[in-house]
Amino acid sequence: xxxxxxxxxxxxxxxxxxxxxxxxxxxxxxxxxxxxxxxxxxxxxxxxxxxxxxxxxxxxxxxxxxxxxxxxxxxxxxxxxxxxxxxxxxxxxxxxxxxxxxxxxxxxxxxxxxxxxxxxxxxxxxxxxxxxxxxxxxxxxxxxxxxxxxxxxxxxxxxxxxxxxxxxxxxxxxxxxxxxxxxxxxxxxxxxxxxxxxxxxxxxxxxxxxxxxxxxxxxxxxxxxxxxxxxxxxxxxxxxxxxxxxxxxxxxxxxxxxxxxxxxxxxxxxxxxxxxxxxxxxxxxxxxxxxxxxxxxxxxxxxxxxxxxxxxxxxxxxxxxxxxxxxxxxxxxxxxxxxxxxxxxxxxxxxxxxxxxxxxxxxxxxxxxxxxxxxxxxxxxxxxxxxxxxxxxxxxxxxxxxxxxxxxxxxxxxxxxxxxxxxxxxxxxxxxxxxxxxxxxxxxxxxxxxxxxxxxxxxxxxxxxxxxxxxxxxxxxxxxxxxxxxxxxxxxxxxxxxxxxxxxxxxxxxxxxxxxxxxxxxxxxxxxx
Length: 529
What we know:
17% strand, 18 helices, Rossmann fold, 529 residues, D-Maltodextrin-Binding Protein, domain 2, alpha/beta, 6-stranded mixed β-sheet
């Protein structure tokens, strides 16, 4: 996010003039973005000479977008004998500090009122909300001549062409994640469908960051002929120079917006309330709104084209999902190919439905995902071996013998219905698959074995369940975490055994009780973390 010095000559000149007028003789920056002010409306800072026995210190923290506005306003409204240290601090950083036991600033102006809720601050005392919004700036999608305007935020983000600031440290980025959910009702899309669109968005961004890209997301980060889009704010977009090709390509459904509330700590220092009220009144005045406009921000009443604000819960859930989904997947898919997988499931056999789910699931995974495929039934791999490797774990874009791993897996998915026979050799296969996933472990990936079965272990010569669980626990390595994820296909599967295997390795087990559940459960299992 740009500071005032980075936002173009006009705004830098205004901020420089303000600072020159208000900084004391020794008033250099104190900490990141902080300037000491000891001001009087009448004499510009000589309050001590009028008989102040001591200054009262008021701690003020301001979102970077509002910092220039607030510094200028404080020059006019700070009372005698009050000393102010306005610090430029991103709201998420303040909220994280408070949630870990830190103190709220006396006066705090974050990027969005959602940051002032318990969901962000934890059990700490929430501040008093004095003014809901001092200004606002919409969150936009910006691109060049080759970029397109998508009909919705969900469609744009699912395209894989959108780069966003890290939602864990940027409110604009977090709001971009929730936009598909907020717009869903107005465009006739279900909440579940909008949530699924987060998957390709997060994984595409994760792939770019894995390759050292998208570390610093800015409006003009792509060349003129790129089809890519960037999440930014209207304020930052207004300061871009030398790129007349850039356009606001935000979907017509509207934009999320930063709204900059004015809050007061419940344990604020003496004099803080009066200063906060004076600041709020000044910024609501004609003179204050001129300062807001000069910084490229909108009046708080100007909500043209903005979407409703999401709840703190919605933002928290989206950011948590993003944190999980943006980590690339490395998985070994292990599929039951016993005779019972031929049982009719209404619109085909159980294996037919699972193969269809696998083909669809492959479409969700980006090229950098690593996927391998085994099938199993008693002695499927030859005498004494219940598993057969169809493809080792490789990147989906890995090219071997003229075909990619993705293409090879799709071909095998079409052939799997013809591979079914025999009994269920579950336990030996689970142990062998876990060992293979450990051997193929990749750091910076979410490593997992996805074990799918419709039955119970039927191999009389295999390892027993308790011995299997003990071996899995012994093999588990906290420095090389690999999870076992189980999918029980129908009520015939041994869900309890799958759950025990999963828990020992830090994974989960899921039940696809009905044939129509298979795709949803498969996607949930594959994308779990």
